[in-house]
Amino acid sequence: MESTPSPTVATPETGLTPAEVGRLRADFPLLTQTPGLVYLDSGATSQKPRCVFEAEQHYYERANAAVHRGAHSLAVEATDQYEAARTAVARFIGADDDELVWTSNATEALNLIAYACSNASAGRGGEAAERFRLGPGDEIVVTEQEHHANLIPWQELAFRTGATLTYIPVTTDGALQVDRLEDVVTERTRILAFTHVSNVLGTITDVAAFVARARAVGALTVLDGCQSVPHLPVDVKALDVDFMAFSGHKMLGPTGIGALYGRRELLNAMPPFLTGGSMITTVTMERAEFLPAPNRFEAGTQRIAQTIGLAAAVGYLDEVGMDRVAAWEEHLGARMAAGLAGIDGVRLIGPAGVERIGTATFAVEGVHPHDVGQFLDSRGVAVRVGHHCAQPLHRTLGVTATTRASTYLYNTEDDVDALLSAVADVRGFFGVTP
């Protein structure tokens, strides 16, 4: 495969500089071809560097074939690129190749675990799958700040198995009540599912505390890494979680590709979720035997070009340096939070004095978030509005919807200042007075 372009960055010890970020932006066609755009919605989906487009195009032009099937040289080349992409993405999160399962997105990855547990609870998978069996008296624990994708699959699993779903609450200012872990996570808990970074608040969960409590009671841990893998250095072995889900489109990669990390011994013990071709060893008219992980979870024709695009994205992030990405976003996030907190009639959502990524969520007194978003859009500032697929959290915070601004490595201090200037004008535009 031909090499893809590298980002044009300098390499100081920590953090990015404004000049470097300016040069990085040149790698993102949409940003350079849309004059005046201030894109602050990377928490929903990130922009893509040119090398990601070129990697996918190269595959389609030079190696397009079905993987893990044909014996011809083109199929071998396609399979090699597909598996090389797995290696690259697995290494990016500190996993081994056979511990990374391709999915369409993080939502599918989380549903994969939930449905595998459901199948085990119905008796599929034999003795090896007993650890995934749930029934009446068992508990599944989540947190009140979860994205719906890490809540509803567990609600459904509880419904199908008779298990009980409970949760770690948040305070009315959005602080996760970690001190409730021992009360809520009990000897009956079988699964503890929680987000690494809140998609609403940008706050970072104390993963070590959650894992330690789960280990103490023998529960499996499922981490939602959608907002952490793109923005922070993540090592799944150091985090010591059992499973982690994340999506490519939030980390400079294509849409339609996500991944599930799982400990090798757990993946190989889980009964599959989707079944069909490419995930079996032997099939008779009465039964089938399944391949080891990750293939047992990759039935049918796979997302080959998307995996290659995602590998190009993690190569880009690796070259920039995730420590430096995190430091720059922390700087931008602090600038946003301080600026928003200083605007009359604006409420910065979330607890004070906690570690965050470069995300700030807010409410403007007297103006609906959708109106806020439309006004900001008229000023060239793209943000997310609504409940951000986290209705229970918003209910506890006492708001039905909010406005969220989320940064990435290509955002500048000027972007943040443009946001603050526009927000300061919102109430005046809508005629809302103190």
Layout of helices and strands, plus pairs?
Layout: H1 18-25, H2 29-32, E1 38-39, H3 50-62, H4 73-92, E2 100-103, H5 106-121, E3 139-143, H6 152-161, E4 164-168, H7 181-184, E5 189-195, H8 207-217, E6 220-224, H9 236-239, E7 243-247, E8 258-262, H10 264-269, E9 280-283, E10 288-290, H11 304-320, H12 322-341, E11 346-349, E12 359-364, H13 369-378, E13 381-382, E14 384-386, H14 391-397, E15 402-406, H15 413-424, H16 426-429
Parallel strand pairs: 1-13, 3-4, 3-5, 5-6, 6-7
Antiparallel strand pairs: 2-8, 7-8, 9-10, 11-12, 12-15, 14-15
Helix pairs in contact: 3-11, 4-11, 5-6, 12-15
Protein name: Cysteine desulfurase
Domain Aminotransferase class V: 38-419
Enzyme class: transferase
Notes on the structure:
Keywords: Pyridoxal phosphate, Transferase. It comes from Zhihengliuella alba. By secondary structure, the chain is of the alpha/beta class. The protein has a domain at 73-317: Aspartate Aminotransferase, domain 2 (3-Layer(aba) Sandwich). It has 16 helices and 15 strands. The chain has helices at 18-25, 29-32, 50-62, 73-92, 106-121, 152-161, 181-184, 207-217, 236-239, 264-269, 304-320, 322-341, 369-378, 391-397, 413-424, 426-429; strands spanning 38-39, 100-103, 139-143, 164-168, 189-195, 220-224, 243-247, 258-262, 280-283, 288-290, 346-349, 359-364, 381-382, 384-386, 402-406. It has a 7-stranded mixed sheet, with helices on both faces. It has a 4-stranded antiparallel sheet with strand order 11-12-15-14, covered by helices on one side. The chain has a two-stranded parallel ribbon with strand order 1-13. α8 (207-217) links the parallel β5 (189-195) and β6. α12 packs parallel to α15. The longest helix is centred in the first third of the chain and has 20 residues, at 73-92.
